[in-house]
From TrEMBL:
This protein's GO CC annotations: 90S preribosome; cytosolic small ribosomal subunit; small-subunit processome
UniProt similarity note: Belongs to the eukaryotic ribosomal protein eS7 family.
Coiled-coil region list: none
Record protein name field: 40S ribosomal protein S7
InterPro entries noted in UniProt: Ribosomal_eS7
One GO MF term: structural constituent of ribosome
The organism's place on the tree of life at top rank: Eukaryota
GO BP terms in the entry: ribosomal small subunit biogenesis; rRNA processing; translation
Keywords of this entry: Ribonucleoprotein, Ribosomal protein
Length: 192
């Protein structure tokens, strides 16, 4: 049975999954058990979907939030993600904004020229998802490695100042980003 507060927390058309309901319940529990400033910050925050990805014993829970609320989630992410990881057992939690890429218009069908915003291109959406996955760590470099068979692997280099906090989460970042975009990625921490 889904409570009223859980339904208010989930902003989605159609049926909700049990995982989405459990994350909404956990968010409500965190809101009820936290201090006044955190309660106010968590009051109007919603989720749009939750996915669970697992590979080789590693589980990652990807929480999608509305694009307009990603700044509010980032303000409290340092407190919220560890609390979610305590409640969701043996899982790494990643919060990403729900973004949508507009398709490219074919040249032959351009009767009315509509300009596609730069932020809605596939590349911009993938870059924004990459920033969301590794937030609050800064990305200091990125390389694309092409192998002889035609495949490519993206190497993302993260800031060395966050080494202690991020080092055990690198495999989870790669798993989440691969599931969201389909791009094979390796995350590393800068050496110097």
């Amino acid at each position: 049975m889904v409570g009223l507060f859980e339904m208010e927390r989930i902003q989605k058309k159609g049926e909700t999954t049990p995982l989405e309901q459990s994350i909404a319940t956990i968010l409500n529990e965190i809101q009820a058990g936290s201090e006044e400033g955190m309660k106010k910050a968590l009051t109007n925050l919603k989720i749009t979907g939750v996915k669970e990805v697992s590979d080789n014993g590693l589980k990652v829970v990807i929480v999608s939030v509305p694009y307009k609320q990603i700044a509010a989630y980032r303000a409290i992410q340092g407190f919220l993600v560890p609390e979610l990881e305590k409640k969701v057992e043996n899982s790494q939690v990643v919060i990403v904004g729900k973004r949508r890429a507009f398709p490219k218009e074919p040249v032959r069908n351009r009767r009315y020229v509509a300009i596609r915003p730069t932020g809605r291109t596939l590349r911009a959406v993938n870059e924004s998802l990459l920033d969301d996955v590794v937030y609050p760590t800064a990305i200091v470099g990125k390389r694309i490695h092409y192998d002889l068979k035609g495949g490519q692997t993206t190497h993302v280099i993260l800031d060395q100042h966050d080494r202690t906090r991020v080092e055990e989460r690198l495999a989870g970042f790669a798993l989440a980003y691969n599931r969201l975009t389909g791009i094979r990625t390796v995350f590393e921490v800068a050496d110097h």
